[in-house]
Amino acid sequence: MLRQKVLLVDDHDIVRLGLKSLIERYSQFEVVGEAGTARKALELVAALHPEIVVMDIRLQGTSGIEACEEIVKSFPGVKVLMLTSYGTDEMLLSAIRAGASGYVLKEIGSDDLIKALEAIGRGDGLLDPVLTQRVMQEVRKAGNEKDAVAFTQLSQQERNVLLLVTGGKTNKQIAETLFLGEGTVRNYASSIFLKLGVNNRAEAAAYAVEYDLKKYIT
């Protein structure tokens, strides 16, 4: 089995030690490096080519959000999972805009963290369920006149897929719900991202909430 390479970025040694000890219990992952600063993280991403970066938001100097944006822009294949103690709406939205594939709180359980890494590794992405409702409420405040035409490019089946993505469903769960193959769901997801001009599932979900997708499901 090919193991997915993980880079840990946190300015607290004890946190990195704990994460490394946990993650390396699972044969599907390999912790290939650790960094305490955003600058070091960028150097290690270039040198070690990890599939997943577990990134704290609050770092000395350059923030984790700025580092995430740079990593996603410079290394498109790398997924960033924000793991943080800070669950504010502003930080969550900033992380999504920066291209993070997922955002979870450090209070998450060990099993759930591994599931989050597995989801990120599959390309599913996720938001911490504790924060999802809050970000939905925050995005709704933005209200935009474009909502009437926001989903006109999407077929009805693409809208159905997007609705399930917004609900945090994985490709496998969407496939089972809509009686489709996982490959078909992935193709729908890629088409949705392209048509909406978003980069990942988190951005697509935020878009769907902002423009109230449910109004366009028949």
What's the SSE blueprint?
Blueprint: E1 4-9, H1 13-23, E2 29-35, H2 38-48, E3 52-55, H3 64-74, E4 79-84, H4 89-97, E5 102-105, H5 110-122, E6 126-127, H6 129-141, H7 156-166, H8 171-178, H9 182-196, H10 201-210
Parallel strand pairs: 1-2, 1-3, 3-4, 4-5, 5-6
Helix pairs in contact: 2-3, 7-9, 7-10, 8-9
Architecture overview:
The chain contains ten helices and six strands, in the order βαβαβαβαβαβααααα. A six-stranded parallel β-sheet has the order 2-1-3-4-5-6, with helices on both faces. The N and C termini lie far apart (43 Å). The chain has helices spanning 13-23, 38-48, 64-74, 89-97, 110-122, 129-141, 156-166, 171-178, 182-196, 201-210; strands at residues 4-9, 29-35, 52-55, 79-84, 102-105, 126-127. Helix content is 51%, strand content 13%. The longest helix is centred in the last third of the chain and has 15 residues, at 182-196. The model has no long low-confidence stretch (mean pLDDT 85). By secondary structure, it is of the alpha/beta class. It has two domains: 4-135, Rossmann fold (3-Layer(aba) Sandwich), CATH 3.40.50; 142-213, Winged helix-like DNA-binding domain superfamily/Winged helix DNA-binding domain (Arc Repressor Mutant, subunit A). Helix 7 packs across helix 10 (201-210).
